[in-house]
Amino acid sequence: MDVNVLGIIAGFLTSISMIPQLIKVIREKNVEDISWVMILVLICGLSLWVWYGIIQKELPIILSNAFAVLVNITLLTCFMIYRKK
Amino acid sequence: MDVNVLGIIAGFLTSISMIPQLIKVIREKNVEDISWVMILVLICGLSLWVWYGIIQKELPIILSNAFAVLVNITLLTCFMIYRKK
Fewer CB atoms near the end CB (10 Å): N or C, chain A? Predict the structure, then answer.
């Protein structure tokens, strides 16, 4: 398999993986069992992957991680809104 | 910054990101708000990243994603154990 196609499929899967979680959170308005530390560490790590992708000039890494950063920022925002005070 | 160091830090953060979630699940034995679709899609995507890393011969990608696969398989196992029937 072409390595770029492989990277795009891999990136597509890892970037969309948080979407079912996001939908579940928006639908159920419940975030009690979710770890905000996970989301925060993930956002930091994914942002560094974007940087890595830019240096290595690897488009699948840049696109998939940039998208995943956006999804996780949305998830973190939902977390802030729905968490129990 | 050296690109390998950057990749290692990025990979370290994304691989450890699920650990706080795993600890929370093990401690609280509650997985109601977590999406198993997320975990499953993530495992598929991360496995493809390992494959991508092997072809590109990029150690940070291989190691971090392989570790993340293990963490997520553990999380999925916990999900199966703790979910309400």
Answer: C
